[in-house]
Structure formats: structure tokens, C-alpha cells
Amino acid sequence: QVQLVESGGGLVQAGGSLRLSCAASGSILRFNHMGWYRQAPGKQRELVASITTGGSTNYSDSVKDRFTISRDNAKYTVYLQMNSLESEDTAVYYCNRRTALWRWGQGTQVTVSS
């Protein structure tokens, strides 16, 4: 079973930046299209950014031009650079593959104060 470990969250003021990391056990990550998801209190989990095995990226309208997803296959890690953070970005952030989801990790909390 693949284990996903997210890190890098925290408390930041509006307009600030954070960089999230997602480490996967083993080398399987390099063979999968990956995504960053988030779940805000009282809301459903949503996909905010995705990256293919070849490095093509896609973003939800809510984070486009502010967030950047990247991957380092040699380190079995996916990143999410978040800039110009807004209070609406407050959520628990998770990574997972795009289809046939693995078991969710614990996520990392991002809190943006206005």
C-alpha cells in the first residue's frame, strides 16, 4: 500500500506564501499523474492542481496563476508552491494520484489569516 505524507502547511497572513511537499513511499509516484486536493471545513474535497507524468499541469480557476505544482521523481516527491494566499485557501491539503485514488494521507493544514 502506497503511503503519502504531506508537509509544509502552517499559519500565514493573506498575501503570503507556502510550499507544500508530498512524499510517497517507493518509486511508484513517477508512474502516476498526481494531484493536490484540499478540503475546507464543511466542504467537499476538491482538486486544485494536477501534474502528469510528463510534467503537464492543470489548475482550478480558484488557484490559477497563484499556485504551481511540480514534481521531482528522483525524490518521489510532489510540490505545491502557493503564492498570494487568500483566506479562502484555508483548508487541509492532500496529495494523491488523479485516478484510482490511494489511501489518503493525513494532509497538511493551511490557515490563511486575513
Mean pLDDT: 95
Count the beta strands.
10
- Principal-axes geometry comes out as globular
Low-pLDDT stretches: none
Largest sheet: 6 strands, mixed
Taking Cα atoms only, what radius of gyration do you get, to the nearest Å? 13 Å
SSE string, helices as H and strands as E: EEEEEEEEEE
Distance between the termini: 39 Å
| Count of helical regions | 0
Q: How do the strands line up in the largest sheet?
A: 2-10-9-4-5-6
User: In what range is the share of β-strand residues?
Assistant: over 45%
Query: Class by helix and strand content?
Result: mainly beta
Helicity level, as a percent range? Answer: under 10%
Textual characterization of the structure:
The chain is mostly beta strands. 0% of the residues lie in helices and 48% in strands. The chain has no helices and ten strands. The strands form two sheets. Strands 2-10-9-4-5-6 form a six-stranded mixed beta sheet, with no helix packed on it. A four-stranded antiparallel beta sheet has the order 1-3-8-7, with no helix packed on it. A hairpin with a 6-residue loop joins strand 4 and strand 5 (46-51). The radius of gyration is 13 Å and the shape is globular.
List the helices and strands and how they pair.
Blueprint: E1 4-7, E2 10-13, E3 18-24, E4 34-39, E5 46-51, E6 57-59, E7 67-72, E8 77-82, E9 91-97, E10 108-113
Summarize the structure.
The protein has 114 residues and is mainly β. It has no helices and ten strands. The strands form two sheets. Strands 2-10-9-4-5-6 form a six-stranded mixed sheet, with no helix packed on it. Strands 1-3-8-7 form a four-stranded antiparallel sheet, with no helix packed on it.
